[in-house]
Amino acid sequence: MVTTQDLDSAVATIRQGGLLAYPTEAVFGLGCDPRDLSAVQRLLAIKTRPAHKGLILIAANLAQLSDYILPLDENLHATVAADWPGPVTWLLPAQPDVSPLVRGNHDTLAVRISAHPVCEDLCVRLGHPLISTSANPSDQAPARDVATLQAYFGQQLDCILDLALGGRDKPSEIRDSRTGETIRPA
Fold first, then answer.
1. 1: pLDDT strictly greater than 60
2. CB-based burial label for 105 (10 Å; 0-12, 13-18, 19+)
3. Reduced to 3 states, what is the DSSP secondary structure of residue 106?
4. What is the per-residue pLDDT across 82-130, written as a single tens digit (0 to 9) for each?
5. Which DSSP letter does residue 81 get?
6. pTM for the full predicted model
7. Domain range summary for the chain, segments of one domain joined by +
8. CATH no. of 4-184
9. Which are the contacts of 100, defined by CB distance < 8 A and separation ≥ 6?
10. Most exposed residue of 16, 19, 54, 97, measured as fewest CB within 10 angstroms of its CB?
11. Distance between CA atoms of 75 and 139, rounded to whole angstroms?
């Protein structure tokens, strides 16, 4: 069961530039403040993830993403809103000033309004989106438990929220808003 103290500690970790492991719909995620590029670089380094691939942002609501994505037209807004909150990540046109460390070598940004209550609560408490990438080195399976997290990262994480995953078997589906193509199936 999540406690206020757990969430307070996680939020403090993010605000201090730390790295957080937390439960998502299917796997543990690694997160940090997307505006703290030192933290983003540290996250990429411990994952051994090339920066050109980009990362996912999760948010509590679409308004939290306004500094990161371009305004959506009415049709796209309706399409995206139909999937949120939920386990669908959308590639949406990025604001031009979003760091390449976050968006990679793309003019889109992967974003999701998570249905996991811990993810939502973290973003509400932070007042902004959170980086969300699977908790694993790039060549390993995503962590589904704390023992695996610790085996992968040891003391490199500043805080771990040891709470239940959302019950899904696979990480979020990823869809391209421009083409409608499913990049990663559910």
1. no
2. exposed
3. coil
4. 999 999 999 999 999 999 999 999 999 999 999 999 999 999 999 999 9
5. H
6. 0.93
7. 4-184
8. 3.90.870.10
9. 51, 52
10. 97
11. 38
